[in-house]
Design brief:
It is a single chain. The chain has one domain: Growth Hormone, Chain: A, CATH 1.20.1250.20. Helix content is 72%, strand content 0%. It is built from 21 helices and no strands. The longest helix has 31 residues. The radius of gyration is 22 Å and the shape is globular.
Length: 448
Amino acid sequence: MSVSTLGTKRTTSDKPLVPRQWMLLFVLVTVLFYLWGAANNLNDVLIRQFMKSFELSRFQAGLVQSAFYMGYFVLAIPAALLMRRFGYKVGMITGLLLFGTGTLLFWPAANIGQYGFFLFALFVIGSGLSFLETASNPFIAELGDLDTSEHRLNLAQSFNPLGNITGVLVGTVFIFSGIEKSASEIQQMKTAGTYLSYAHSETLRVVPVYIVVSIVVFIWAALLARAKFPSSNVDVDDVTVDHGSFRELLNYPHFQLAVLGIFLYVGAQVCTWSYFIQYVEQYTGLHEKAAGYWLTGNLCVFMVGRFFATWLMNHFRPNKLMAFYSTANVLLCLIGMFVPNWTGMIAVLLTSFFMSLMFPTIFALGIKGLGPNSKIGGALLVMGIVGGAIITPIMGLLTQVFSLAYAFIIPLACYAYITYFSLVGCMVPVRHGIYDSRDYVPRVKPRP
């Protein structure tokens, strides 16, 4: 396929997007994108809930995302090493078992009433999702023709926002009580000795949701255990197979820039969604449940954007499309910063439409041409998700020093980098000095 500008159509490959014999497996793995999407955005509800039940500052509440995404960072390399030895299937099942265990830990954490225990449970969940993302993203990208890898991964990732929506909607309905106490009411309850009981009841509201999630996750682990995977992904005893090496990844500048792109993109996404409920409450005057429903609408916009971007990739080059989308988000963040009212809120909401294609497109462009280095390359890209752990509390600090609106300078800067990566950083050589001139412009001369 060939394309040179955003306005030029792409010709699609004669090969199917997903080989027919692997369609069921594609569906089973695509559901994983839905499951971790739900877990990711339940965190946005937890931040607001824990601020209430544990009397946390925005910075302290931002540690929810830090603990969660630190699991991605710490476990991504072990996940890659496990899959390099045993294949994608074992990686996915291991991830689901960790995911389910972490959600079960919410039960004792709520009974004990310790914020630190919740953070540990979130770390375990994030560790499980690290395995899932390290396995699922490159697996889907490789499950078919290389020319359609971005399209195929965007299709699978299109079900991630369905999980995002489910997580926020379930959290809004079943975790938020709708009872918000003013500072004076809280002080009166503390004087009367009733505040601890109220705070504990608010904390316990998270338990039923996470128990249901654990049941679903364990069932899906059993289904994947029975599924048949391509032999190339599980035939690890063949000594002729080249598993790649970390050192070889230094030869791929596009991959290194993609890792930074993932780091900044996830930071921008997590910051936007983590503080969206508070932005709505502060600048529109709506209460937590109404703000939660607006966040659900935010994620619906994200989902529509993902499906629309998947369709657009039949016509436009992915990196050019992403450059247009990231530039749009820079402008929308400026509106959110300098017009902090309903207009600013709508602008921040619309960033979800344009961020929708970024993660799968950066990921697919990053691992393109890595060959046997795809598993470990995928692991390092997943490690980049730690941006959600590092950037979110930084934005929380900025909200305390300046204002919540001005703190949106953080996602703005992230989108500016993604524009650079889309236009320049992804133009890279394929292995052995042979360049894919159909899609990319070489940055160095090919080896003779």
